[in-house]
Amino acid sequence: MNSKKLYIWTSFVAAAILVFFAVATLFDLKVSEVLYARDNAFGKIYEAIGKAPAFVLSAFACFVLGRNAEINEKKKAKTYLFYILGYVAGALTFLDFGEMLFSSKLFALALGAVLSVPLTVTVYAVTKRIDGEKLAAMKKWALVVLFSVALTAVIVYLLKTIWGRARYVDTQTGDAMFTPWYRIERTGGDSFPSGHSAFAASLFLLLPLCGIDERLKDKEKQVFLVALAFVVVTMLARISDGHHYLSDVTIGFGIAFFIQAIVIAVAYGKKLDKQVLDGSNKLERLLDAVF
Q: How far is CA 211 from CA 67, 134, 136, 140, in A?
């Protein structure tokens, strides 16, 4: 993947987001009325898996950094820290699924902790088979993943707190009234923007790997289309189950996508297809100092 492709694809997605956002501004409530289907299986499935890309990729990124610390840096404390963070990210992967099964958040966390064991064991086994040179090349990618996901999470949840928008499903039970996205009324809800749509967009972070992993070589277009399809389906699912409006999912997707595009562009510049780290990269030095 090169910088020209990133620019073209980013422009395409930006145009699509603007179109969806314009439609949402005018017909937010109408779209929800048409697509809403209470307690549908489609919505439930994506409620459980929509955030998984962000947490699975974060777990993998942590183990890549842990293996780098173990092999290339010989730092045990740093190694264990990243392995623990990877396990936590793995547990968060199953949190929504757990909350669907249990009314108690404690039980949901316990389920995530249990299911994270086979996930992180698998991730560790995969990273252990990567040679030291490729691990070094993947270090920058891992840092980009963690930085992008963390920044996306902070911005999304800050906006949720500030907007306090009620969900469409609550308007159907009479517990809330519809409010357009541009009106901040602090109703106590957390509809705007959509965290599921934002975290689903983390699949786009696989694109830089196309210049590192031979199995993904020359498959940038396929990766881009799969990521886009997953995000669009997640957006539809979240509207269909009444948890979000079109504006919610569009802004959630837009926030994540543009953060990723900017971070990737800054981290790699015109070297998206290179495997060798550029030690002069300012973002990489900053991220390496933090982590």
A: 20, 11, 13, 12
CB atoms within 10 A of CB 154: 10
CA 158 to chain centre: 16
Q: Is-contact 83 61, C-beta < 8 A? A: no
Residue 130 has pLDDT above 70, yes or no: yes
Give the tens place of pLDDT for each residue, 242-273: 999 999 999 999 999 999 999 988 888 765 55
What are φ and ψ of residue 281, in 5° steps? -70, 125
Residues 20-36 have pLDDT tens digits of 999 999 999 999 999 99
Identify the domain containing residue 192 by its residue range. 3-290
What gap in Å lies between CA 92 and CA 53, rounded to an integer? 11
Structurally, the chain folds into a number of domains equal to 1
Measured at the alpha carbon of residue 74, what is the angle toward residues 72 and 75, in degrees to the nearest 5? 120
Spatial CB neighbours of 253, under 8 Å, sequence gap ≥ 6: 17, 194, 197, 198, 200, 201, 231, 235
